[in-house]
Design a protein that fits this description.
- There is one protein chain.
- Helix 1 crosses helix 3.
- The protein has a domain of 33 residues.
- It has 4 helices and no strands.
- With 149 residues, the chain is mainly alpha-helical.
- The longest helix has 67 residues.
Amino acid sequence: MGSTPGKQATRQAARRAAAEAQATLMRARLERDRRCAALGVQVVAALRERDDLVQRYERQAGEALRALVVDEAVGAAEAVQWCAGAVTTREVARLRRLAEALPDDGAGGLPVGRGDDASTSDGADVGHPHVDPATVSAARREAHREEPQ
């Protein structure tokens, strides 16, 4: 059983066609792998940026809670009330510990557009990076409602 020249040519053509198809498939897979790798890097980078922002804002919240509890001599339960129930007493403790444990990296301020020099006529430091002016206004309205008439 010998091979005829026609069979050899057919086999060679079939091997070339298969090799070209496999090479095309491998290039497509390689390109897809590169795209997937780049997208994976984007996901990880975005999540790290998110984690950095969460840590930054949690540190700010912890610093504000420390000021509320220590400087203003407010208990944790009362701090929860001042924060409109946005935190629990456990979270007050956690955020305070976080603020004490994490060094301030100098990026503690709020995003651009929030001034650090604004204050109100009654001395409340609205421009302070840890105090939201809307929260201060709401707290003032609530305090005025509770004042005896």
